């Protein structure tokens, strides 16, 4: 037991997620049980509206769970203080930045906030960590550019660099590859894979790029109407899980190539 | 980068100092520059000049400095908090609250009538009424903001308070005499010159308190540039920081309005000028620049408002807009792009 606890960064038990208003509760997904291993690249896939973002937002404590427990490093995520949580988990969300009038360096430097003093001045160590994050994401040349001058792909890299600078065990990304072309989708996911392999961080992201995720991820979480299944991509293919992802009238999953094909 | 901004700050500080001297040396009575210095730092031979400088022009210059920088800073706070380039220090309904308080005293006095009325309309009663009015609106906004999660909702609630007070003021105006209306309108022109040293000291103490809260919120303000969810993920207590920023704004804008009347435009425009001129959104850089720019512009506006060597003083509220608005338009046209 102690051994398995050591292995898992996230343990989810009997989790119901959704939205609560005064009169009504909208349950997006219920009875989720998951154990996610440390140091892996993990993708959450599923159809639109199945609850991927809701699950990630619940993990990130942006919204409260309706029922059940989430353990982050063996401790209930709700019992973390804001600053403890900021040192354990960092986020890359789909929402637009409010201000893009910051340089790449300044934006990444904001990732050091949980560690800096009351006025937020950067120490030598902080600057080293930021430089390192710039290098890992290949952004060193852009560090003095303003964020509004960047392409979507570059901006996404900056946000990933910011979460690296936050130096957390877990990085959660909500659909990091939307709006990107095919090359940059692969580039970003490959970057995430390299980060997990070189730094022992765990990266959890939601995505619609099922074929890319199958090729790159250590583990995949597949959300369907009936169940949430977790396993390595190969085992999931063998078990025929991907066939159940979508209605069967338009596309079919090809087990040999690991991708979806449009029916003729 | 660091060198450049220190350099800019130095130049702006010198400009501010020059503006202070210019402001003190101009007025309806012309006093030679030499005697201006003597009156401030030592003893001038001319007693009446010394009196004018020490008891009229100096407090007015300091008031202008506090008003300009205070309104500029509270505008910066509101624009960041509400993620809205149109926000100013008065979006929370602070000036509406103050107007309501003053309107009740000036216009309402006719309704409550009699000898009480003439007692009520002293300067202090206006200051107290304005403070009370903005304080009550602030209290309502704070209560609401502790319940509401969405910052945009607070903005709209502030605007609603504004509409309600405007409505009450117009009902009161309908029942008021021409003389009372004139008095109320005069308050609305704003004025920097009516303060004694005692009042300047009170204003300064509250102002200082607001600035201290602002400085302690600098880190949070930068984090807010990412949006609230990111701010939370960086370990920021969003509700508490939001509350501190609202309190700082209310202290600054509320007291300034109470003492100097509702002064338009400065709060909205100065942060934009700072961002346009120095092309940054980092609050550590913006705060001192907004402080200096606000004070400089306010002192210049005041110089223009007194129409040098004449006896007339134009409404400061009109001058700030007349001078400030074209400057912002010019900056935006020159840059062809709004940075926020």
Map the helices and strands.
The complex is a heterodimer of chains A (264) and B (340).
Chain A: H1 2-7, E1 8-20, E2 25-37, E3 41-46, H2 52-59, E4 67-72, E5 75-76, H3 82-88, E6 89-92, H4 104-109, H5 124-136, H6 152-165, E7 170-173, H7 182-199, E8 202-206, H8 210-216, E9 219-223, E10 228-231, H9 233-238, E11 251-254, E12 259-262
Helix pairs in contact in A: 5-6
Chain B: H1 2-25, H2 33-41, H3 47-81, H4 94-106, H5 108-112, H6 114-120, H7 123-147, H8 151-174, H9 178-189, H10 197-216, H11 218-224, H12 228-233, H13 238-260, H14 266-278, H15 283-305, H16 316-335
Briefly say what this structure is.
The complex is a heterodimer of chains A (about 260) and B (about 350). Chain A is an alpha/beta fold and about 260 residues long.
Which features characterize this protein?
heterodimer, A: 264 residues, 6-stranded mixed beta sheet, 32% helix, 27% strand, globular, B: 340 residues, mainly alpha, ABC transporter involved in vitamin B12 uptake, BtuC
Structural summary, described in words:
The complex is a heterodimer of chains A (264) and B (340). Chain A is an alpha/beta fold and 264 residues long. Chain A has one domain: Rossmann fold, CATH 3.40.50.300. Chain A is built from nine helices and twelve strands. In chain A, strands 6-7-8-3-9-10 form a six-stranded mixed beta sheet, with helices on both faces. In chain A, helix 5 packs across helix 6. Chain A is globular, with a radius of gyration of 19 Å. The termini of chain A are far apart. The N terminus of chain A is likely disordered. Helices cover 78% and strands 0% of the residues of chain B. Chain B contains 16 helices and no strands. In chain B, helix 1 runs antiparallel to helix 3. Chain B has 340 residues and is mainly alpha-helical. Chain B has one domain: Orthogonal Bundle (ABC transporter involved in vitamin B12 uptake, BtuC). Chains A and B meet through helix 3 and strand 6 of A and helix 11 and helix 12 of B.
